[in-house]
Structures are given as structure tokens and as C-alpha cells.
Amino acid sequence: MSVVNVFSPVEAVVFDVGRVLVQWDMRRLFARLIAEPARLDWFMANVVTEAWHFEHDAGRDLVEMVAARKAEFPGHDDLLDAYATRFGETIPGNVPGSHEIVRELAARFVPLFAITNFASLFWRDYRAGEPLFDLFGDIVVSGDEKIAKPDPRIFELAARRFGHAPEAMLFIDDSPANIAGARASGWQVHHFRDAPTLRADLSARGLIGEAPSLSRN
């Protein structure tokens, strides 16, 4: 949990999306398409890797990068087409407890924002079916800006757009690199592990109520 600085009140809370608000696992899609465990392991380690996917999050054109990957790894065209057309299947559901925290913050009129490493097309498809983000004042999407976390420029851009000083915002992310980048840019931070730990931090900051305890008869 982040250390609370009582002299630095939080004016706004800024969320990451993947693995903070929604579950994300690219292997989930390809496990449906590749039956052999050893081949699946090789494919995820060499072809559709998170590092390669990050290039699309950072704004690289989807058609160009898939075509280049097909040339580099011939014989995997159908699987690479699935990456381009079935990305929604890599999102199995919400992170337990996180959406409830967002709604409680919104009910207390805490300004909410997000910074997400998300490809533009994939984001538009996902966002269209998720009304939770109607509660957010603004969302900085890496694919739109062609800048991805932890690049300090994305935190500078977000601060300008959100209209709050970095030190007055709490940034929540599961990535140690992104947390370090935000901290270096002057933001207050919470390294996300699970919703109960986040709730405890937000409660200590006076932003949210504590989780109700279960009474015993």
C-alpha cells in the first residue's frame, strides 16, 4: 500500500484499466485455438508476446504490425488474424471489487480519470460495451496519443487534460514501471494488487468508506 501523506490531499483519482478494473489475459484467447500446451507456450513466448502487443498500445498500425509478424513467423496467419479480430476474448471479466470502488468514489463526487495503455481500435470496441467509464471525466488512451506508459510525456499530457496538479492526483496501476514513472512525474501513487488493499488505502485517505465487516452470530 502507498504511504499516505496527510499534507497532500487527493483531488482526483486516476485509474489504469487492464488488470486494475478489468482482467486481461492474451493466453485465454489462444488457449482456445492451440490445443498442444507446448506449442501454446512457444507461441505466447515468441509470436504474440506482451512486448509485441505493447507496440500496438503505443500506436503502431495494426494492419502493418500483423503483416510484418506473418512474414516473420510464416504458418501462423490464422492465429495472428485472431489477435486482430478477437481481442475482446482476452478480457474475461472485471477485477473483483474494483468497479464497486469506482462507483463509490463517483457517488462521493470524487473526480475520476484514467490513463490506459490500450490500442485505439481495441479500446473503442471495449469501451462501447462498458458503461462504467461514463463515470470518468476523461480517459487518456495510449493508442490515440501514440505515447504509452511509463513514458513521462503521457503523465504530463494527462495532467494538462485532467486539470489537476500531479501531486493532487492519486494514480493507481498494477505495473511497477508505470508506478515508478508516475511517481517520478510528481504523482501520488498506489501500486494495485487487489481491490481490498486499494479500498484500505482510499479509506485511509478519507476518499471512501471501509469495507463492511461480516457480523458473526
Summed up:
This is Hydrolase. With 217 residues, the chain is of the alpha/beta class.
Features:
217 residues; alpha/beta; Rossmann fold; five-stranded parallel sheet; disordered N terminus; HAD-like_sf; HAD_sf; HAD-SF_hydro_IA; hydrolase; hydrolase activity
What does the model show?
Strands 3-2-1-4-5 form a five-stranded parallel sheet, sandwiched between helices. The chain has two domains: 12-23 and 92-204, 3-Layer(aba) Sandwich (Rossmann fold), CATH 3.40.50.1000; 26-90. It is built from eleven helices and five strands; from the N terminus they run βααααααβαβααβαβα. 29% of the residues are buried. By secondary structure, the chain is of the alpha/beta class. Mean pLDDT is 94; it is low at 1-5. 44% of the residues lie in helices and 10% in strands. It is globular, with a radius of gyration of 19 Å.
Topology:
Layout (H helix, E strand, L loop, with lengths): L11 E4 L10 H6 L5 H10 L3 H8 L4 H11 L4 H9 L12 H10 L4 E5 L3 H8 L10 E4 H4 L6 H11 L6 E5 L2 H9 L3 E4 L3 H10 L13
Parallel strand pairs: 1-2, 1-4, 2-3, 4-5
Helix pairs in contact: 4-5
GO molecular function: hydrolase activity
Pfam families: Hydrolase (PF00702)
InterPro entries: HAD-like_sf (IPR036412), HAD-SF_hydro_IA (IPR006439), HAD_sf (IPR023214)
